[in-house]
Amino acid sequence: MATSKLPTILLTGFDPFGGESINPSWEAVRLLHGKRIGGHRVVAQLLPTAFEASLRQLKAAMRETRPAIMLGVGQAGGRARLSLERVAINLQDARIPDNAGAQPVDEPVIAGAPAAYFSDLPVKAMLAAMQAAGLPAEISYTAGTYVCNHIAYAMLHLAAQRRGVRAGFMHIPYLPSQAVALRHAPSMALEDMVRGLAVALRAAALTRVDRQISAGTLN
Ligand code: PCA
User: Fold this and answer.
1) What does the pLDDT look like over 35-44, one tens digit per residue?
2) Which is the CATH superfamily of the domain at 3-206?
3) Distance between CA atoms of residues 69 and 14, nearest Å
4) How far apart are the CA of 173 and the centre of ligand 1, in A?
5) Ligand 1 pocket, 92 CB below 6 A?
């Protein structure tokens, strides 16, 4: 089948923020642009690390690509593993201003919408696929309250209104080049991040009923 006829995976990454000059999420997702994974065509889209503009850009990309699957990817400096978010909450509480200077506190992502959404991607199958590929991975139960949670929530809210659209979010560690100056920060090589994303997306595309394996946390 011609690549253009395949259903689309919309894969988003963010631009650098918080004083960094690189964001691993965009570096990783752009390497998957145009690839064919699990019978889908991957479209990588850069989002600004800014509350309002990121949502506008996401909606435009959705109109253009009509994705069957959306996966947002963002940097979570300090996390050691590829971190699949299971939940997104309807809350903005920014510890630092975004790249447009906005710093919302205690505001909803979408007024009047539900408090939270679970990802409807098969996160356990995706986790198992990354672990089988020899990569450290985990399920996370908070995407924070900054721009990543905002986009994760918006994706899940928008997907819930569209038949046949599934969505989720993955946080990824610093790159080694970012961790050079950070004494205790874990990091992961770009090629491992890209491989992890690819196997996770393949599992997302091919799994209809998620696996039941324990991946909870005690606290
Ligand atoms: N990480 C931030 C926003 C952009 C990014 O890559 C976050 O976790 O909210």
Assistant:
1) 999 999 999 9
2) Peptidase C15, pyroglutamyl peptidase I-like (3.40.630.20)
3) 18
4) 11
5) no
